[in-house]
Structures are given as C-alpha cells and as structure tokens.
Design a protein that fits this description.
Pathway: Glycan biosynthesis; trehalose biosynthesis
CATH topology of the largest domain: TIM Barrel
Family: Belongs to the glycosyl hydrolase 13 family.
Main location: cytoplasm
Number of helices: 14
Number of strands: 27
Keywords: Carbohydrate metabolism, Cytoplasm, Glycosidase, Hydrolase
Helix content: 25-40%
Structural class: alpha/beta
Strand content: 15-25%
Organism: Corynebacterium stercoris
Length: 581
C-alpha cells in the first residue's frame, strides 16, 4: 500500500475488499498492473493511524479480514488489522558518514532480552556502555512482527513492518538516530528464505511461496511464476530499511536456503539496492550473507561470477577455536578439534575447500581467492545466537569454561584479521542462557515446535530431558541478561575492552590474509601479520608451554613469563607481545 491509495497484490482471489476503520469498500483490478487491486482515493485515502484489512473472495465465500502482506505496522499483532503509518521523523544524524565494514566491531543483540524493558529504548540506554567497550556496530536480531511477544524473530511474517512491543517503526528510528549520534552503525538481521508459521496469510493473496520446505517454513517464491512481485516486495523492504530508516546494513539469514535459479541472483539485486542508496547518501551500506556453504560466490564481485555481498558469516573459525578449548566433538564439531585445523582455517578462512567433511560425508566448499577477498569480509565470533541457542539448554560458553578460557577465545577472535562480532553479554561472561523461545497462540504449532526441537537435539546426542519448553514464559525470562556482574565479570570486560583497543590501535583489520603468519606446536599457536611487531601467542592446553616468541608483554589475562626469545604461557593463557629486533 502506498500513501496515495489502498492497494494490494492479490492474483489468487476473484474479488477483494478493504475495510478501513470499520467501513468496507470493494476494490477494483488495476488495469496497469496484473494481479493488483486498488481503491479509488476519492473513496478512502490512507491516513496515518487508520486501521485496515483485506477480505478475499475465492468465488464461493469471503475470508475473514486479513492483514496487508506489505503492512508497515501491526499494532495488535500478526493476526490483527494493519495500520497506516507516516514516514516523517525528526532525524538528527545529518553528520553521520557511516562506517566501512573493515572498521566495524559488531555486537549481536536480541532486543527482547538485551534489557529488562525489552524495547528499542532499552537498547538506547546501553549505547554509551557499548561505545565505551569498543563496539561501533550493533546487529539486531530480526525485528519484524512475530506471533506473541516472545520469539527470536525468525518467525516474522511482515517484512516491511517493525514488531510493535519493541517500539514499532518510530522506536527503531529513535534507536538508529541515537546510535549514529554515538558513532555506532546499525545492522538489521532480515529473513527472506521463509515466512513464520503463524500469521502468514500471504499465500491466500498470491504465490509468495512455492513447493518445498527449508526446514523452517515453505520456500519463498523468488524463481517461479509470480516471483517478480515477490522479489519486488523483498527489494522494497531492503530499500525501506536503508533509506527511510537510515539503517547501515543488513544481515541476510541463511542465503543458502534461497530457491534462487534465475540468471540474476536475488543477492545481486539486494546488493545493487544497497549500492544505489550508498551512492545517493554517501554513507556506506553493508550486506552480509549467512551461509555454511563455503562458497566464494557470496563475496566475489560480479566480474568473477559472484554476488558481490560485503561479507559473510564464517562459522569455521568459531568451530575451530570452540572444539580446541571445550573439547566438544559432537555433530558438526567432528570436523574440527586440532591445532593444525585452527591454523589452516586462520590462513584460509574456509575450513573446507573442496575437501572431505566427515560430518557431511562428502567433499565440501571451494577455496577463496585470497588475492581478491579481504579477511575483513569474513565475520567471526566466539559465539552467536545460533551457537548458543541451538544447544539443548541454550548454555553460553561461560557456563562451562573458565575465565581464562573465555579470554583466550576472545583473544584469538578479536586479534584475528577477520571482522569480529560479540554476542550480547559475552564480554562479561554472562551466565544467563539463551535458549530458543516462542509464544505461538496456536497450541498445535507450539507442540510441533517442541517436538521438532527435541528430535533435533536427540539426533545430535543431547539429552531430551535437558531441553526447556520453548513456549514456556520462564524459558524467555531466563534469557534476559543480568547486568549485575561481579569481579569476575569486570575482569573479563576489561579483557575484551583492552583487546579491542589493541585491535584498533595496531591495525588488525588487515586487507590481505596471505600476509598472516601462523605458527604452531602441539598445543600452542602464534599469529601475526608478516613484518608486524605485535604477535598473539596462545596456549590451548592445561599445561604450561614455551612458545618461541619473545619481546615486550603488551597484555595478558594471566601471568606469562616473557623473555627476549621465548615466552612461557600459563595453562589456557595467551600473551600479546611486541617483538624486538
């Protein structure tokens, strides 16, 4: 719907009506656009605040009033009427020039559990804290409307709207404006590979989905008949976030689940919208793809057969570090767990480069061309919402690892040449879990979700009795961050802050992964840029080890003995060393 007229793409029904503030009006087919229905503006024109819904007739009967598939506001939830909202906002970020991805340190957060308020305004209250830590970009888990009040956000159904309990569109704009005032970019996590299972009425209007299932929902129709309009819907959402909401970038969820068979990839088209907005505003826009395919096309530019995204999430470094420190080898972790694998992954970004994967029982991946892809185009992390939430109890690394081990993980990630991302609370070793949670009003959906989670965890070797009920309010409340952290938390926070300062001041956001020098022994590893005097030495064992690097100690979480030519590291210790000579 535009602000000029009520309109809807609905090629499936034979008749369409719109009810505006209780008044019902028949709509007419648009002679200029196949499948579209419009209401004469002389009958009713969209005014901010008006509630409206569409009814569809299939030749036999009328449906109940349904929300607009392209609604911008759902004040009463995903089943209620849509609301007309204006686009005006008193922006104060006219001096904001943005941040290039190369310079970003990301912080992933879930609005509903980040603070007690569970709102955008609650996030605003923590922006100064994040800036002091050294964060200059926040990545919001999906904020599109979902059923109920408790959800990770990946069950969204209205891709142009903002979840009302978080603060709606006005609240999101306040957050972006406030973040920019503090030098912090805002990235939105968006889901275009499936719709949520509750409140998704889009299929009654037109072919928004097609045959097949992603594991989370029906396949979105971006390649079949009618897909031009579905793509236009997605690109309209992309443009809305980047233009109207001043958002600095998007993280595209699970791009490997796109049914993308057309000559021009949807990812190319999304990137083109971002490039256009960046050119119009002179503010860089970042597009990040999430994929586990180890496919260079994600970040390769068009001249090399790629989609040209700014970056991709990179699980491999996380898995390599996690298995070494935790000792876990179940599920996909079976392909990791040695110093050699960590060193190889740090040198090449991808663990699998057309090589054998035991977990997949096949070869996997393709090498990156490191002469064309910069390491900062890979997003790395010590954990994220998936790596924490897709565990049986949603336990964070801090639930089982010592502070020394947590600091060691942080040092490897934050001083790597890749773009680092923190998951909310990890910087102080938060003990609150982050399990999967939902609040579906449909009890059958809730039951299916419970059973699906139990089946998945059983398949991975977890004890089903440990899995909390995702629909229970207590599961959600347990995930809210506890911001009262003691001496242990403050020391870990200082470690993160110091490591981020070292990264910033000594240029660890490098342009060429081929210059990274990684050496290792049986349990230790050193990492530095060739010719650069600052070296990270790390001990991945429970015994003291000697590492053949010496010089001046810049920082450590423990008490290493740094000599002129060698350093003795504590168990699970690391040292940032300035070499001499």
């Amino acid at each position: 719907m535009t602000n000029q007229q009520y309109e809807v793409w609905a090629p499936h029904p034979r008749q369409v009506r719109v009810t505006v503030d209780g008044e019902r009006h028949d709509m007419d087919p648009d002679p200029a656009r196949a499948g579209w229905w419009v209401l004469d503006p002389a009958v009713a024109r969209p005014e901010p605040g008006a509630r409206y819904a569409f009814s569809l007739h299939d030749g036999t009967e009328w449906t109940k009033p349904l929300p607009d598939p392209r609604t911008r506001c759902q004040p009463d939830g995903v089943h209620g009427p849509s609301q007309v909202v204006g686009t005006d906002f008193d922006w104060t970020d006219g001096q904001w020039r943005g941040l290039h991805l190369k310079d970003q340190v990301l912080y992933e957060l879930h609005v509903g559990t980040f603070t007690e308020d569970g709102t955008f305004d609650g996030v605003i209250a923590k922006l100064d804290y994040l800036a002091k830590l050294g964060i200059n970009a926040i990545e919001l888990m999906p904020v599109q409307p979902f059923p109920g009040t408790r959800n990770w956000g990946y069950d969204g159904v209205a891709w142009l709207a903002v979840h009302a309990p978080y603060g709606g569109p006005e609240g999101l704009k306040r957050l972006v404006d406030a973040a920019h005032a503090r030098g912090i970019a805002v990235i939105l996590d968006v889901v275009y590979n499936h719709f949520g299972p509750e409140g998704n009425y889009n299929g009654m209007f037109g072919p928004y989905t097609t045959q097949g299932h992603t594991g989370w929902g029906d396949v979105v129709n971006i390649s079949g008949p009618g897909s031009d309009e579905v793509r236009a819907y997605i690109l309209a959402a992309v443009g809305q976030w980047l233009r109207e909401f001043h958002v600095d970038g998007l993280r595209l969820d699970a791009v490997h689940a796109y049914d993308d068979r057309r000559a021009y990839s949807l990812m190319e088209e999304i990137r083109a919208v971002a490039d256009t907005v960046a050119g119009e505003t002179n503010v860089p826009r970042t597009i990040i793809g999430e994929t586990d395919q180890n496919d260079p096309r994600i970040v390769n530019d068009e001249s090399r057969g790629g989609y040209g995204l700014s970056a991709q999430w990179l699980d491999d470094v996380h898995h390599s570090v996690h298995t070494l420190i935790s000792g876990e080898q179940q599920g996909y972790y079976v392909d990791y767990g040695t110093i050699e694998i960590l060193a190889d992954t740090l040198r090449n970004a991808y663990r699998f480069r057309d090589t054998w994967s035991e977990y997949r029982a096949r070869t996997h991946g393709r090498p990156l061309d490191l002469s064309h892809v910069a390491p900062w185009q890979m997003i790395t992390f010590t954990t994220n919402h998936d790596q924490t939430g897709n565990r049986a109890v949603g336990d964070r690394p801090s639930a089982s690892l010592s502070p020394k081990q947590l600091a060691l993980r942080a040092a490897v990630i934050l001083l790597s040449p890749f773009t680092p991302m923190l998951f909310m609370g990890e910087e102080f070793g938060a003990r609150t879990p982050f399990p999967f949670f939902i609040s579906h009003s449909d009890e059958e959906l809730a039951r299916m979700t419970r059973e699906g989670r139990l089946h998945e965890f059983s398949r991975q070797g977890w004890n089903p009795t440990d899995v909390p009920d995702p629909a229970a309010p207590a599961t959600f409340h347990a995930a809210r961050l506890d911001w009262e952290f003691g001496q242990r938390g403050h020391k870990l926070y200082d470690a993160y802050s110091t490591l981020l300062a070292i990264r910033r001041e000594h240029g660890f956001n490098r342009d060429d992964l081929r210059t990274l020098k990684v050496e290792h022994g049986d349990t230790w590893l050193t990492m530095a840029e060739d010719g650069h005097p600052v070296v990270l030495a790390a001990n991945f064992s429970n015994a003291r080890v000697e590492v053949p690097v010496g010089g001046e100690l810049m920082y450590s979480y423990t008490s290493p003995r740094v000599g002129a030519d060698a350093t003795e590291l504590d168990p699970w210790g690391f040292a940032v060393i300035r070499t001499t000579g």
